[in-house]
Design a protein that fits this description.
Blueprint (H helix, E strand, L loop, with lengths): L2 E5 L13 E4 H4 L4 H11 L8 E6 L5 H14 L4 E9 L2 H10 L4 E5 L11 E7 L8 H11 L4 E5 L11 E5 L2 E6 L3 H10 L2 H9 L4 E4 L5 H12 L7 E2 L20 H8 L6 E4 L8 E4 L2 E3 L1 H11 L13 E4 L5 H9 L3 E4 L7 H5 L5 E4 L3 E4 L7 H15 L3 H12 L1 E12 L1 H18 L3 E2 L2 E8 L2 E2 L6 E2 L4 E5 L4 E6 L7 E11 L9 H4 L1 H10 L2 H5 L6 E2 L1
Parallel strand pairs: 3-4, 3-5, 4-9, 10-11, 10-12, 15-16, 15-17
Antiparallel strand pairs: 1-7, 2-6, 5-6, 8-9, 12-13, 13-14, 17-18, 19-26, 19-27, 20-21, 21-24, 22-23, 24-25, 25-26
Helix pairs in contact: 2-3, 2-5, 7-13, 10-11
The protein binds alpha-D-glucose-1-phosphate-6-vanadate and cobalt (II) ion (CO).
Length: about 550
């Protein structure tokens, strides 16, 4: 088998962000760009020889080409076997499940998640380790360091393309390539966790739901699980065919980009439940008739109701949330008498806690919820978990949520995103807040007293690793919080995220508009970072 050693020179910008390396497709299409990064991953895995790798992506533009290149590089780098999804498709949670099921050494996921796709949009690549989870910071930083010194990569030449359309085994050089059904293993895993009979009774009854796959990866998974296995009426899953450009839309399940679904639930159609997922299938948005469930609340409701799901009947060992996620789940943990943890943004920080058995559920405010069944957040899992609670309680989403608030207090929450800022402006806005940190504590702001203001740092309780600069947080004496972060998933410029939260125990004040309840904190946030003076902005581009 001819293996070519191709000389190359480093690119300076291959540092993985919150979730892998994300760039414009045109950046990845530069000669050697993808190859350099893939070789940097392989170079930091010296024990890969003869091992199994899982490979797939969300089907976005450039997925197929990238997969053919990676297969030939994997063969040249001594991998023993690659399992690749048919047509190059695999959702992020499905990759995680396959790594665990096959005791693979790791997996490569090709996706830029909720970012738009197409020749002028985004592509991404992420490496997951043998527990099925995103590579921890130690590995991603090693990949980046390697990418800055790389001077050659290996690739087999003179072999035909692997036919990704046909299930079964073939060879790429000496390496075995197995094209597998992308859905089957994942669907079996879901059947092992949930009571499919109970879910089926719900979905075959008068209950009406819609799942919007936004022309991204969850279409085939949702068709199989919701419609074929559970018997929901045909048409329950909409936009179910994955398209390379997601039909020209953002595959981002929020009120702005999944507007069609939100309108259907919030303004009138006869639907009891609505859900959507993102490009790579790890996010979820939950809606009930006339109501949107804030992701932080969703995590809390699932934690409170977990024991009605067979896999979690014994209860949860603990829960975790990312720092900007609201404290609603903490309130549930306190009530259940189980530990709760606070981690930096990004799923990689949950891996150690899950592996150690310290937590069973975890989630993020950014429409991410998951459990110890895999090491990624999992959109369809969250949908099935919600359906399980609805079936067990015989109540609607709104009733469950308002009851939850009565029992645990309501954590009013909103995130404001200021997208497409010049990179320097993003840095200036963060610096404006950072400069004030030393003097904020004890001040009275927005009618509350600042209890603590800091630049969030995290020490992993399992391996002791430290992560610095994970966002600015301002904590108030009444439990309110104001948090500032720059996004680590964008591909150009900067996005400032400001997160606002205030807990309200008084049942009489739990049915108000979050934007109104939080208006003082919203105003304070803009003032502290000198938003208008530094960026000219007065309003966010996305509110969730
Ligand atoms: C965003 C979210 C974060 C999430 C990450 C990856 O990161 O805020 O909570 O883990 O996306 O999600 P950032 O750095 O842009 O805030 V996914 O579904 O895009 O892989
Ligand atoms: Co995603």
């Amino acid at each position: 088998m001819p293996i070519a050693t191709v000389p190359t020179t480093p690119f300076p910008d291959q540092r993985p962000g919150t979730s892998g390396l994300r760039k414009k497709v045109t950046v990845f299409q530069q000669a050697h760009y993808l190859e350099n990064f893939v070789q940097a991953i392989f170079d930091v895995l010296p024990d890969r020889q003869g091992k199994t790798l899982i490979l797939g992506g969300d089907g976005r533009y450039y997925n197929r080409e990238a997969i053919q290149i990676i297969l030939r590089m994997a063969a040249a780098n001594g991998w023993g076997r690659v399992l690749v999804g048919r047509d190059g498709l695999l959702s992020t949670p499905a990759v995680s499940a396959l790594i665990r099921r096959n005791l693979a050494h790791g997996g490569i996921i090709l996706s830029a998640s909720h970012n738009p796709g197409g020749p002028d949009h985004d592509f991404g690549i992420k490496y997951n380790v043998s527990n099925g989870g995103p590579a921890p910071e130690s590995v991603t930083e090693a990949i980046w360091a390697r990418s800055k010194r790389i001077d050659r990569y290996y690739i087999v030449t003179g072999v035909p393309e692997v036919d990704l359309g046909i299930l079964g085994s073939s060879h790429c050089g000496e390496m075995v390539v197995e094209v597998i059904d992308p859905v089957q293993n994942y669907a079996e895993l879901m059947e092992s966790l949930f009571d499919f009979d109970a879910l089926s009774r719900l979905l075959r009854g008068p209950f009406r739901m819609r799942f919007d796959a936004l022309h991204a990866i969850t279409g085939p998974y949702a068709h199989e699980i919701l419609e074929r296995r559970l018997g929901a009426p045909a048409g329950t899953v909409v936009h179910g065919e994955p398209l390379p450009d997601f039909g020209g839309a953002h595959p981002d399940p929020n009120l702005v980009y999944a507007k069609e679904l939100a309108d259907a639930l919030l303004t009138g159609e006869e639907l009891d439940f609505g859900a959507a997922s993102d490009g790579d299938g790890d996010r979820n948005m939950i809606l009930g008739r006339g109501i949107f469930v804030t992701p932080s609340d969703s995590l809390a409701v699932l934690a409170a109701g977990a024991t009605c799901i067979p896999a979690y009947r014994q209860g949860l060992s603990g829960v975790a949330r990312s720092m900007p996620t609201s404290q609603a789940v903490d309130a549930v943990a306190q009530r259940l008498g189980i530990p709760h943890y606070e981690t930096p943004t990004g799923w990689k920080f949950f891996g150690n806690l899950l592996d150690a058995g310290a937590i069973t559920f975890c989630g993020e405010e950014s429409f991410g919820t998951g459990s110890n069944h895999v090491r990624e957040k999992d959109g369809l899992w969250a949908v099935l978990a919600w359906l399980s609670i609805l079936a067990a309680r015989g109540q609607g989403v709104a009733e469950i949520l308002t009851q939850h608030w009565r029992d645990h207090g309501r954590h009013y929450y909103t995130r404001h995103d200021y997208e497409d800022l010049p990179a320097e402006v993003g840095a200036d806005l963060m610096a404006a807040v950072t400069h004030q940190l030393p003097v904020l504590s004890g001040q009275k702001l927005a009618g509350r007293e600042v209890r603590l203001a800091d630049d969030f740092a995290y020490t992993d309780p399992v391996d002791g690793s430290h992560s610095l600069h994970q966002g600015i947080r301002i904590l108030f004496d009444d439990g309110s919080r104001l948090i500032f972060r720059l996004s680590g998933t964008g591909t150009s410029g900067a996005t400032l995220r400001i997160y606002h939260e205030t807990p309200v125990a008084d049942v009489q004040r739990q049915l108000q508009n979050p934007q109104r309840v939080l208006q003082d904190l919203i105003r304070l946030g803009r003032e502290l970072c000198r938003l208008e003076a530094l960026s000219g902005r007065t309003q966010p581009t996305v509110i969730t």
